[in-house]
Amino acid sequence: MGANNQTWVREFILFGLSSDWDTQVALFVLFSVTYLLTLLGNVLIVLLIRLDSRLHTPMYFFLTNLSLVDVSYATSIVPQMLVHFLAGHKGILYVSCAAQLFFSLGLGGIEFVLLAMMAYDRYVAVCDPLRYSVIMHGGLCARLAVTSWVSGSVNSLVQTSITFQLPMCTNKYIDHISCEILAVVRLACVDTSSNEVAIMVSSIVLLMTPFCLVLLSYIRIISTILKIQSTEGRKKAFHTCASHLTVVVLCYGMTIFTYIQPNSSPSVLQEKLISVFYAILMPVLNPMIYSLRNKEVKGAWQKLLGQLSGLTSKLAT
Questions:
Q1: How far is CA 105 from CA 72, 97, 207, in A?
Q2: Does residue 210 surpass a pLDDT of 60?
Q3: Which residues, in sequence order, are bridge partners of residue 93?
Q4: From which domain of life does this come (predicted)?
């Protein structure tokens, strides 16, 4: 009976952020601009890293992966949200909803593990700088990146599978901006306590474990920095980690708050705003943080702009 009931749902209806037309148009314009900036900023970061040999280091290899994840994550949610802002019917097909959940959940998990790998890279750079190139060789960096992508994807596949095996009966209204896992689980017409436990276990594995590794790395980093005698040396060491630390604080904070305890999760409005933060703001903030606070990236930008300016002048003459 439950399995048959599940087939009744052909599509879901997303409530989104607002039902007011003027508000939806304003959000469409705002989020469209932000999404374009996300694409532009992250693509430029990737191209800059590829073009400038000085940026062919482990840190920027991981940053390339982070930019690809950010663009993909935003693309899994934002285009559909933009369409719904201007559409009268805000439906999403059952299969499309499952695909959106798989990609957004997987890419989110990849980013958290990737940030832990980047923290290890910063730990080696600060605490063992003389052996940095030996430890963080290309093979290790590739394995760490693959581990991030595989772990996030496998977790998402498992979570998506067990979520969409739940009988939805005739429940099809999702009070969210996208097919987010907790919002979909709430539609089930059976007890979902086992799913909530699975979400919590998944959160511990893919959120708390990387978070603890990040925390441990930065405890060692801070301890090493405090032992540096010169003020200039301490500033230089801290600057090495500043951009990554900023992203870590922003990225881990809200997710841990949202997912570790599903039974006492924040309100639906708070969940929507948190999702907007990760889908809209984080992908556009990351390239800005790494560009504005990083001397190597700023130097590479200046070099590239200088080359483009020289090329333009030659073409003009």
A1: 11, 12, 12
A2: yes
A3: 11
A4: Eukaryota
- CA dist., res. 46 & res. 33, Å (int): 20
> For 148, what's the count of Cα atoms within 13 Å in the CB-facing half-sphere?
24
User: Which has the closest alpha carbon to 181: 210, 149, 157?
Assistant: 157
For 173, the 3-state DSSP assignment is strand
Which amino acid is it at 82?
L
In order of 95, 100, 255, the CA distances from 84 in angstroms are 17, 15, 25
Phi (first) and psi of residue 88, to 5 degrees: -75, -40
Query: What pLDDT band is residue 293 in, cutting at 50, 70 and 90?
Result: low
Tell me the average pLDDT across 177-198.
Answer: 85
**pTM for this structure?**
0.86
Question: Residue 112 has which token pair?
Answer: 């958290």
Residues in contact with 284: Cβ distance below 8 Å, sequence separation at least 6, in sequence order: 34, 37, 38, 41
Taking Cα atoms as reference points, which of 306, 109, 70, 281 lies closest to residue 211? 109
First and final C-alpha spacing in the chain: 78
CA distance 171 to 231: 61
In terms of C-beta density within 10 A (0-12 exposed, 13-18 middle, 19 or more buried), how is residue 118 classed? buried
CA separation for the pair 256, 254 (Å, rounded):
6
The closest of 132, 131, 208, 197 to 159, measured between CA atoms, is 197
Nearest one of 190, 305, 199 to 259, comparing CA atoms:
199
Is 152:110 a contact under the CB 8 Å cutoff? Answer: yes
- Whole-angstrom distance, CA of residue 258 vs CA of residue 226: 34
Beta strands in 141-276 (DSSP E): 173-174
Six-digit token pair at 289?
């943080």
* Residue whose entry in the numeric block shows the structure tokens 């009744």: 8
